[in-house]
Amino acid sequence: MTPRLAELLPAIKAFIVEELYPLEQQALSTGFYELQPVLDEKRAKVKALGWWLPQVPQKWGGMGLSLLEFGILSEYLAKTLYGHYIFNCQAPDAGNMEILMEHASEDQQERFLKPLLNGDIRSCFAMTEPEFAGSNPIQMGARGTLSDGSYRVTGHKWYTTGADGASFAVVMCLTDPDHTNPYQRASQIIVPTDTPGFQLLRNIPVMGERGEGWLSHGEVMFDCVVPQDHLLGEAGSGFAMAQERLGPGRIHHCMRWIGISERALELLCHRAATRSLGQGKLLAHKQSVQNWIAESRAEIDAARLMVLNTARRIDAEGAYAARIDVSVIKFFVANVLQQVLDRAIQAHGGLGMCDDLPLAFWFRHERAARIYDGADEVHKERVAKYILKDYLPDTKNSHG
Amino acid sequence: MTPRLAELLPAIKAFIVEELYPLEQQALSTGFYELQPVLDEKRAKVKALGWWLPQVPQKWGGMGLSLLEFGILSEYLAKTLYGHYIFNCQAPDAGNMEILMEHASEDQQERFLKPLLNGDIRSCFAMTEPEFAGSNPIQMGARGTLSDGSYRVTGHKWYTTGADGASFAVVMCLTDPDHTNPYQRASQIIVPTDTPGFQLLRNIPVMGERGEGWLSHGEVMFDCVVPQDHLLGEAGSGFAMAQERLGPGRIHHCMRWIGISERALELLCHRAATRSLGQGKLLAHKQSVQNWIAESRAEIDAARLMVLNTARRIDAEGAYAARIDVSVIKFFVANVLQQVLDRAIQAHGGLGMCDDLPLAFWFRHERAARIYDGADEVHKERVAKYILKDYLPDTKNSHG
Amino acid sequence: MTPRLAELLPAIKAFIVEELYPLEQQALSTGFYELQPVLDEKRAKVKALGWWLPQVPQKWGGMGLSLLEFGILSEYLAKTLYGHYIFNCQAPDAGNMEILMEHASEDQQERFLKPLLNGDIRSCFAMTEPEFAGSNPIQMGARGTLSDGSYRVTGHKWYTTGADGASFAVVMCLTDPDHTNPYQRASQIIVPTDTPGFQLLRNIPVMGERGEGWLSHGEVMFDCVVPQDHLLGEAGSGFAMAQERLGPGRIHHCMRWIGISERALELLCHRAATRSLGQGKLLAHKQSVQNWIAESRAEIDAARLMVLNTARRIDAEGAYAARIDVSVIKFFVANVLQQVLDRAIQAHGGLGMCDDLPLAFWFRHERAARIYDGADEVHKERVAKYILKDYLPDTKNSHG
Amino acid sequence: MTPRLAELLPAIKAFIVEELYPLEQQALSTGFYELQPVLDEKRAKVKALGWWLPQVPQKWGGMGLSLLEFGILSEYLAKTLYGHYIFNCQAPDAGNMEILMEHASEDQQERFLKPLLNGDIRSCFAMTEPEFAGSNPIQMGARGTLSDGSYRVTGHKWYTTGADGASFAVVMCLTDPDHTNPYQRASQIIVPTDTPGFQLLRNIPVMGERGEGWLSHGEVMFDCVVPQDHLLGEAGSGFAMAQERLGPGRIHHCMRWIGISERALELLCHRAATRSLGQGKLLAHKQSVQNWIAESRAEIDAARLMVLNTARRIDAEGAYAARIDVSVIKFFVANVLQQVLDRAIQAHGGLGMCDDLPLAFWFRHERAARIYDGADEVHKERVAKYILKDYLPDTKNSHG
To answer: Within an 8 Å CB–CB cutoff, is residue C330 touching chain B?
Structure first.
């Protein structure tokens, strides 16, 4: 905990509890677009208070927090439903900002990055395809074919979060599908969503909700022609940039999950302490509930220490050095999250099942935490193979 | 497996796969009311085929299956979304039929039971109250006050399944709140939903969905006056009748959960066998997935044997004799269900999260399986206290 | 439950409780050889009572129970430490009896089977080798080389249960190591332990105990010459005979584990009901303990139903038809066993850790239940691959 | 990691691997007394190298490590069987040293502490009683009755670790059993084991082993008279001193468990990388094994961070401030330990079950980790009640 953050945090916490918690009821029963005016108003306050873009360097108008500092802050933002959005550090925009700050041309930055930083537009990242397993990232159907100074970008993507209403998509596609190095076949190309041939087939009904706007996952079909200068970075660097994005992206998720878990535990404790079982007994007096509280406390503490420790390592040594740590926390924290949410719902009974509280929302949508950005099984394999390298005679260590 | 059922089952299975599975896509994306014409058409077919009301005695127009036979059939009905509804053996109507067959006057049967059996109307059962813990069933706020040959029924209920569109509610309320025996304080009273003062406050947004019609859970407020002859059975017998209802109700749920689990496992296996991971490998080749399949197979087999064994015992000895067996399966099978669903979703990745398959629907709504009709914790306590009776000096065996 | 067994069981149960439970203290603190006179005395009683060799056909002097009947009996035998030994149905002798009844020549039966049935000698089965993974049964170092009417049997085996004091070993070895069908390379050869070159290197210190006699696991080195007529069955049939043995062997283990689990639960309940926590509270009043009792009840009931159902299937259709069922119960019941034992120990605290009760003995030695006769992982793979056959285009379904 | 420790650690690690690992085979097959000459020789080396008494302040001849530093070191000591003993920081002597440094008179320190620090004698701590539940520490049968300048100390204790061969016991007993404050009823009295009336009834056979010397758990009966000046600290302070001892004692255990877990994971990885399954496949190629490795890595990392974080807090704020953190790690780390050991044994198959490796030793004896110094259930209740204080109206928050 740095002095800077220690100074800011109490005010931010108070803002979250006093200004954002009261939005939850409405947020749970209203679509994104209807809610947007309120969200915009809160965003304006955040800007005025100097907390806008906490994860972004000061030269780009952000707070310039280290990843460790951001991790501490992010936990608090995650305790409510639109926290990250209101501070403009939400996925997938935060990831797009990062890539654009790092790899975009000045022109691209002017046109796409600046309005994104300013909160004027939203963006999306089109990577996952229904036909190919995400566990094998070099498999992909989308193509970017260069001819006459333009890329024709074709493909079928889904789980393109926030495609609905986004101004542009960063599209992952194969621009050199026969390159001998499979990791140099893909590029990332910026495709404005008003380009002819960009088609949002549907907002996927995820866990019963199509959602809308930022809170939606699009299935997108495109056959678009964009100028060659919409290429992001160098041709063939798409896979490398995706890796660059996903490492921090994953720890950002972990940070969020800790905040959700902590809030769920608070709700659990509050419920336990106030729910009467009759005859002077409270839910808090049941040993099963006490077990849930203690186990959740232990698991969340473990998760937080691991995440902050990984953030510190990334700050010090870079994302590549900490890639295995990131895989470890990816599956560990996702499982903590789901256990804590499950217990909190169980303690609430019928109230836990319904949208009078945010628990049911998190329960159903964060089921995906063990799937997106690498399923548990993928990360476990990666961790194990890395560890086993020291024990095996050579590095071709697994068919498994 | 009786000869009668062995003869019928192949045709029923075929009907489910051929006629009901194809409805799932629509069922997952459409409200109950829009779907109802199709459901009615299927109901007509089921009637014509002689499979209507499988759980109801022949003298009332049903198939007259034993509970064991129904358990076997029910598994198949549960493999798809509207199976039980189409055979008119869905909760809460099936429970109301049972109570009405057993305890209603001829008049009540004529007016409420017959159209229910015929599928002309739906009904609901108003028991749970938001202000009181279900684990202590004698706590209740609803009142039924008799004066001048009428009951004034007041109360606030929620999770009144299918209240939306129901013709009548069976309402659990205290008619003699000061009776020295707390188990004789409550009665069940039939309240037609068009009675003035009956107010469906909302369909509760459960896991993001308010639903409608049969597929909804109502929050109901009422202050209704009904004639005294709307009392079901004797005054003060409400708790006993609720017990009578809940025992079979619980095993009916267990039977359904086995069908859902079995279907989820089928989907898991199908996914594993068809999902390519590239380089000639399938998801089915991953040992983690194989573990999920084998563990699911074991757990579902265990669950089925326990449920059918309990059904046999109820057929032979009655529900009271098997009440502890019912508590055992209630928590055991609910947990099997959730584990199997969780694995099936994990194996499907993004596809498992969305409503292109029924998995996500079951995952989010059947989270309640560990809550409704007695939370896991309540049943475990009951089972343990029953077992401990043989070891403790006396029966006042727990403060716990 | 057949009438025959229903009639016998009460007396057998009483015998176990009254005559065998009291031996436990001594059994836990004494070696096998010191205990043997008492065991022999009990064996004589069992013979006199007509309960000797319950699993063996009447023509061979046994009770001739079906596998289902034996399963029910076996549970009771397993509730104490030497139950199976005292009834002469203990591994590995019971398996050797079975093989000898089925495949031995008259001469072999006269010389090896009859004294075994009579309880005059013990035997062992030498299969597992330290150098080769048991998950791949065709890998083996032991050789049986035929020349001049004799087999020279060489090899290094371990976990040869009861080798110490056995009169003969049935040795699995490759007699035709280059046979194109790898499943026809092995044979089983009877090697009397007094054959020159038979060397019991040590009783392996398993979980801190070398044990002795029947209760030991030998590491054996041999280079023995035996007459050709010590070959059991036909040359090359060793693998098939091993399969024949292991199927029933596995269900026999499962039957035992249910008895151990049931006894552990009884001890847990007894402890809970008698352990004071002060201020009038008992361990039985703690909800955690109640959870353990209820969960154990559910799991043991599930395990028993699955085992008896599998036994019935083997009785009706033979071991091959039920081989997948056997794999399912092998890992399912082994895990139930260890969970129940773990809970029972936890409830006993320090008393559970020490050998004043049989819990600690079972806890440490039955840790092997998830390893011997096929580790959990091996059985899960087998079950999954079998199930997946119906979903995959062909049967070469896994690299896994 | 402090510079001092960073400098020392490589040499200490090398010492452990090169000088102590090779003792394991002998240690696993030999009694403590037979091993003692070798242990003494290693102790002499440790003294010469300046590593003696790492946890003890320099003024008492130790290294004066902070608790955080000791935590890091302790992990390495725990990777082998006699690590702590050889550095003279083993339980229960380390705890007795601490109490004696803090509370003993100069005379007592001269007579009991100095030879203990020097490694000339061993000691024990007699607290647990078979008749009373450890979860309620104020219940106790032992009495210390003062008359004529002497205490008559009577009682029945068990799990008095290392009583066999100890020179003195610190005995917890009630000296003022009727004090209105139940936490001021007990005192700690030093009882030399050669005092008449001190009777080591037996070394308890724990998990099949009575053990001997330091590696044993005694059941002790005493009726001893000792001079009044054998009282440790003030009369009535026994409970407070026990708390003082148990806090650090618990974190010392947690530090050890991390080392054991880490070693178990190393053995698991080594096994996976070297065990052939035939056809060019290794155990390391199995996804189940990879899952075990990754999950163990995550859990051990979590455990270590929590333990070191708690150590830092104790260093900074004292044991009382960190008492809930200590309860959290007590149950969390104990469970990590047992899961990791279980996986390591499973991966080793038969080899894991036997004493050719230390895994089986740890598996059986560290089963007690979830029992001693407060069972999991006791710590979970404590943690939950502490957390719930902020949610409940008053502090009398549980009957539970």
So the answer is: no
* Beta strands at B168-174 and B123-126: parallel, antiparallel or unpaired: parallel
Site from B254, B275, B297 to mutate, C interface, most C CB atoms within 10 angstroms: B297
- Digit-by-digit pLDDT tens for chain B (400 residues) are 789 999 999 999 999 999 999 999 999 999 999 999 999 999 999 999 999 999 999 999 999 999 999 999 999 999 999 999 999 999 999 999 999 999 999 999 999 999 999 999 999 999 999 999 988 878 899 999 999 999 999 999 999 999 999 999 999 999 999 999 999 999 999 999 999 999 999 999 999 999 999 999 999 999 999 999 999 999 999 999 999 888 889 999 999 999 999 999 999 999 999 999 998 999 999 999 999 999 999 999 999 999 999 999 999 999 999 999 999 999 999 999 999 999 999 999 999 999 999 999 999 999 999 999 999 999 999 999 999 999 998 655 444 3
| CA B47 – CA B271 distance, rounded (Å) | 35
Which of C281, C293, C298 lies closest to B399 in CB terms? C281
Yes or no, beta carbons of A380 and D281 under 8 Å apart: no
Length of chain D: 400
Kindly state whether D335 is in contact with chain A, defined as any CB-CB distance less than 8 angstroms. Answer: no
Measuring CA to CA, which residue among A280, C318, C161 is closest to residue D392? A280
Is D206's CB within 8 Å of C349's CB? Answer: no
CA distance D47 to D88: 10
Q: Does A109 touch chain D (CB under 8 A)?
A: no
Q: Give the ipTM.
A: 0.95
pLDDT given at position A56? 97
Cβ pair B291:C380 closer than 8 A: yes
* Statement: C240-388 belongs to CATH 3.30.70.3460: no
Q: Do D286 and B291 touch (CB under 8 A)?
A: no
D397 → closest Cβ in A284, A287, A309: A284
Which CATH number is associated with domain D3-104? Answer: 1.10.540.10
Pairing assessment for the beta strands A281-282 and B123-126 based on DSSP bridges = unpaired
Contact status, residue D128 vs residue D157, Cβ threshold 8 Å: yes
Q: Choose the closest CB to D278 out of C136, C278, C400.
A: C136
E strands, D150-308, are 150-161, 168-174, 186-192, 198-203, 211-212, 215-227, 231-232, 276-278, 281-282
What was the pLDDT predicted at A240?
94
- Give span(s): CATH 1.10.540.10, chain A: 3-104
Residue C149 has pLDDT above 50, yes or no: yes
Show residues of chain C in contact with B384, CB under 8 Å.
289-291, 293-294, 297
Place of tokens 């710590």: D379
Beta-carbon contacts of C200 under 8 Å, excluding residues fewer than 6 positions away, are C163, C164, C193, C218, C219, C220
Name the 3-class secondary structure at C146.
Answer: strand
Find the residue in A nearest to D295 (Cα). A380
Task: List where CATH 1.20.140.10 sits in chain B.
Answer: 240-388
| Nearest C-alpha neighbor of D78 from the set D164, D135, D140, D13 | D13
Enumerate the CATH 2.40.110.10 domain ranges in chain A, comma separated.
123-232
Q: What tokens does C295 get?
A: 């969960």
Which B residues 14-53 touch A at CB under 8 Å?
A: 28-29
Which CATH architecture does the domain made up of D123-232 adopt?
A: Beta Barrel (2.40)
Q: Which one-letter amino acid corresponds to residue C44?
A: A
Are the CB atoms for B155 and B149 separated by under 8 Å? no
Nearest to C75 by CA among C12, C4, C11, C161: C12
d(CA A57, CA A59): 5
Nearest Cα to Cα of residue B152 among B222, B225, B238, B231? B225
Report the residue of chain B nearest D291, measured CA to CA: B288
